[in-house]
Amino acid sequence: MTVPSSRGELLRARRLIAVQALVGVLGGVVVAGLTTVVVVLWAQRQEAGRQVATVVATRSTSGAPPGSWVVVEGPDGRRETSGEVPASVNLARQRAKATGAGSGGGSGEAYAGEREYLTRAVLRDGTLVVAGVDVSAQEDERNRLLAGFLGATVLAGAVAALLGSRLARRAVGSWDEALARQERFVSDASHELRTPLSRLALRARLLGDGLRAGTPREALVDDARLLSDEATVMGDLVDDLLYAASLDARPDVGELVDIGDVARAVVELEQVRAADRGVRLTLRALAVPAVWGVEGALRRAVGALVDNALRHAEHEVAVVVEPEGSQTVRVRVSDDGPGIPAEQAQHLFDRFYRGAHDGRGFGLGLALVRDVVDNHGGSVVVQPLTRGSCFTVDLPAREARD
């Protein structure tokens, strides 16, 4: 089966797997049930045949077992009977059947009301012996067996349909997730690349118009710089989109990571930027257990939180790494910026959401933080304050993840 490339193909693949599972289970149940019915019917017939053969072999009307009857008709036409002989038994016809069947005798059926008898007629030395054994109980058992078989088939069909549906969902689950990631990436890219591409095209057109009009090169420096800035912005956005897609595609790859070292690397890298903005960036990293994850992803998540704090802080950003109990590592990033309204806090981790104080951000940074933390089995929350904000990330320690 080829990998589905659209929702329609995915649905058809799911239906095909479900139908195959249903047909397979029902086919197995039907074959097993029919085999059982045939074997039981054959065994019943053989047992009834042995019983009637035993009765016929006695050639006597005495001692016939319950549920059976015997008729003995001598050459002179005198008859002896034992048991209740069905009225449908015609001795002349039985004699003709026995004559044609030879020494083995002839078999048949006879009926009396709702009772069914298996009969056998044997002719020896001119004496006709006809015996019958009641097989009504076997008929009732056969009917119950068939009813049970039909009920089991219906039940198996229902169970097979349910299991087939679950099996189909599980079988195409990875395809479904991959297709969802693809659709989300395309949606994200088309949503956010539209504006930068439009600005980039506009800058390029203005620069081209200036060159064609003979504008002095010195006057075009600013336009060229803006064009370069727009290209850089779009490149950063593409990097974020590709990074978000890679997080979804490889959630289980990882290693032991020291979050304290990750935070130190991020803070050291951002010190120059913080100084340019006149913001004091501090780190307090206590000894914490290692976590299992992707170091690059965790560094990017912590970096996104610090970047967000630096863009909003007025004087100070504080990063704290500390243990939370024995099974959790906590990272807190706080700033003294304008704060976050409560109604905005619930949307901060949505892709492409921009708060009232966001500048040139894409609305992807905090969404990437959430994706990274989710893929590492942790949680991230923001505490909305009237002054400043505090983002808290909790990650399971290695011992807890094991």
Automatic annotation (TrEMBL):
- What Enzyme Commission number does this protein have? 2.7.13.3
Q: EC top class, in one word?
A: transferase
Q: What is a single Pfam family found in this protein's UniProt entry?
A: HisKA
- Does the entry feature the keyword Phosphoprotein, yes or no? yes
Gene3D superfamilies linked? 1.10.287.130, Histidine kinase-like ATPase, C-terminal domain
Q: Name one GO molecular function term.
A: phosphorelay sensor kinase activity
This protein's GO cellular component annotations are: plasma membrane
Kindly indicate whether the keyword Chloroplast belongs to this entry: no
SUPFAM superfamilies named among the record's database cross-references:
ATPase domain of HSP90 chaperone/DNA topoisomerase II/histidine kinase, Homodimeric domain of signal transducing histidine kinase
Catalytic reactions on record: ATP + protein L-histidine = ADP + protein N-phospho-L-histidine
* Main subcellular localisation: membrane
How is this protein named in the record?
A: histidine kinase
**Species, as recorded:** Pedococcus cremeus
Upper lineage: Bacteria, Bacillati, Actinomycetota, Actinomycetes, Micrococcales
